[in-house]
Specification:
Length: 152
């Protein structure tokens, strides 16, 4: 599986590169600090996975992800939690908030490497629940009940 990293921070790129070294099935083919240069590369080279920062100069990761083919898996790696809902509308595999631990990164990569199990349309419905400053993505088939606590 071929992957690229797109992030404007050199230290973030180095960290993600070091994490990817733990996964022999993933080949890192390029890194980019500019989303437009990455887009140019992606128009010529086939890639399976993109590790993508959101807040970058010239083009945001969200905008870039909307321009990519649907067969490319995207894992957002960002310091901004406020784009999580939009990332799942884009069908991102995961959304990692910096600083990213190796344990959390490993969980994300395992989603990419494990084969997808086919689900029915009913099982695949997602809802988003906001609690304080966090937003959670839930599969409707896994919810037994929801309870509101506190002041309405």
């Amino acid at each position: 599986m071929k992957a690229i990293i797109i992030d404007d921070e050199p230290k973030a790129i180095e960290l993600l590169k070091s994490y990817l070294e733990h996964f022999s099935r993933i080949e890192l083919v390029a890194t980019f600090r500019n989303g437009l240069k990455a887009f140019e590369f992606l128009s010529k080279e086939p890639v399976d996975l993109v590790l993508l920062d959101i807040n970058m100069p010239h083009i945001t990761g969200i905008s870039l992800s909307k321009m990519l083919p649907n067969n490319i898996k995207i894992i957002f790696t960002t310091a901004y939690s406020e784009y999580v809902v939009e990332s799942y509308e884009i069908q991102a595999v995961d959304y990692l908030v910096k600083p990213i631990s190796l344990e959390r990164f490993t969980k994300s990569i395992s989603r990419v490497l494990s084969p997808k199990v086919k689900t029915t349309e009913k099982e695949n419905q997602l809802i988003f629940v906001k609690s304080s400053f966090e937003t959670y993505r839930l599969e409707s088939a896994s919810i037994l009940y929801l309870e509101k606590m506190g002041i309405i």
